[in-house]
Specification:
This protein is 77% helix and 3% strand. The protein is built from ten helices and two strands; from the N terminus they run αααααααββααα. A two-stranded antiparallel sheet has the order 1-2. It is globular.
Amino acid sequence: MLTTVFSTETVPWLWVQVGAVVGWLGAIGLVAIGLSYGVHAEPETVRKAVHIGTGNIILLAWWLRVPVWMGLSAAIVFTLLAFFSARYPLLPGLDTIGRKSLGTVFYAVSIGILIAAFWSSAPYLAVLGVLVMTWGDGIAGLWGRRFGHHQYTVWGMQKSWEGSLAMAVISGLVSGLVLLGVQGNGWETWLSAIAIAVVATGLETVSKWGLDNLTVPIGSAMVAWVLGYLF
């Protein structure tokens, strides 16, 4: 069995996949260190840079056709690193000091769940869910922090209309681009993208304690799956 899985034809490509994943994560770590100690960027900026950079690894994994076991292994390792980093300053930029949240842990867990659920049958759904969280929440946080002049409060959480609008626009755009490559340029694609954007923005707005990193990617993927089935 092992000789079949790890034949002379598959082993070289396996090493390419492993090297690409490890190299990408290592590069993100170096960027975080550079931002933290090189240019002394704000902790929130570092956190969002790691957030966006890490999430984009799903595109690399999709392109390289990384197997399920490798994706799950990477998600588990990142979950453990994020958990211990939330308690001890192991990795710069994963969690902002003073932020009472396990958001990065939920982020890694959501990637693992999406890979387990969709990677074998419909990997684009896992990609869509991760990228909505990666870019939607990442850009919304930075945009709202910089331009969020119109505030509102939900469950004690301070939000901005500018940040929520950015979340909706980026989520819709990301969803549309992913679905465009899979379903083609039809009305179903863009209607689905709008629905995903609305759901993702709503989940990001009401989720506390960093749970949006779990609810948004999974919720977005589920909406895409349901609408894809109906259409």
